[in-house]
Fold:
Amino acid sequence: MVSLMGFLAQSLYRGFFESVIKLSLSEEYSYVLVTFTTVLAVVYLSIRYVGFSYSVRLSKVLTSAFLYTLAASTRLLSSFSPEYCVILQGLSFVLFFVSTVLLVYNPASPFHILPMLTVFLLVPVPTDFADSIAQLLSRVIGRVAAALTGSKIVETSSYVLLEVSTPGGVRTLSVETVCSGVVALGSVIATVPVLALLAAVGRARASRKALISLVATAFAVGLGLLGNIVRLLLVLYAARSTDIETAMNASQYSPSALYSFISTLVAFLLTSKYGEMEAVNAMKHGVSRSLDASWSQVVGVLALSVVVVSVFSSVTIIAGSTLVTGGTGFTLEVASLGNLLEDPAPYFSTEDVTYLSVLYDGYLTRVLGALTAYSVSLEYRGRIYSGYLELVDTPVKLHTWRLLLSTQGYTVTKSWSESLGGLYVSYVVAEKSGEKYLLTHAIVPTRVKTGGSEYRLFARVSVFTPFEDLARAVEYSTELVLAVVGENIEEVRPNTEVVSALLITSYSLLAILAVYLFFVSSRLAVYRIKSKGR
Structure:
């Protein structure tokens, strides 16, 4: 199994692991490195404490077949969602891992499978989820920092500001929320594998296990918040003697991985000392051909059949339509990667689009998590628009525009996405001071060729404009976004072989389930007749 996982990591899921490595080098996702180590350790310890019991049963084969097919479908869909491609690839790998484990592993207790499920934690936390809790945590951090430093705090429904006395006068410091949520959440995620091991092999009472888990989780959350508070305090004190920009640059990185490591260490110490860890004797099992079942099991198989039909019908329709009409991004040939990052506008221009100004924005680069971000002004068919160009090595780093707009005082009232010829375009409607604004953006996979090297980046093109008529604003901004990237989009040719394979697999699995359901029902009916005869 180890050899199989290693082969998949080097081939089919190589892009996922490369993205995970890149994420672990960033502050917000540095917890991934600790989590990866923790998951490996817990899987090893679970093998040592629990052991493996081997058993082959038809029901297990069917379950694994279902998960294998779902993993393949998820991997296929990852090619058509630039924003969530890394997350979908991660889910695909985890499903493949879990299905392989279930195929050969026969847990003596449902809790014994928990350590194996911790592989799900290797999938990066979506920025949508992290950003949703970031604003709440930033308020707590801002209030504590204001109380400790005596700074004046300004709170609205959208943002938190602190007034700081600098050598250049009184300045306002925005409590940036983008790291608060992920850092605190990362400390908790890193401890979960240890707690899963406790639930699997700990012989302590359930109440003690719950108390250990509660203490470990509370410590992880508290440590993550404390780290952010300390960083904000350092920025405030440094700004009083220098200026805000210098203070922010000096405190741009804090060892977030250290918080996750300490949290995991505390959880492990609590578990090993009070969890009463004890090895479980594994029992070998062979092939089981028994078809004895209850009516509840028959209903369960029937429900699984319905799920299979629903999932794979939907997947096939989505994959089929996307494969026929979708787009995969475009290819850029540049002298060097540095040239593209320093001046991306020429590579994202067409005859109809004229750039009036291109300004590097350090704040956006830092807050949005991009390699580089530019504020641009464009002219398109006689109209002038403001917008943004961002380049990033993995789309997971891109924080949502909803968060940035909220921190700048805008109130987000509506958001949605549409698929236009395979290119997913997202829209955000916001208000500020009685004015309405529309932010339209699209993420486009970009292959960058330079010399003998090739890089894979992601470009996010955004247009921000005030409006009175929403329908007309959507039409104009969509035209502009498509004009910037549309000419270079590579069309995907219909891949009917993949769609056909997906259809054959799903319906073959359904046929196997139907046969299994027939045999189980027959066996159960015979058993009932014999019972009545007695």
Notes: The radius of gyration is 27 Å. The chain has a mean pLDDT of 75.
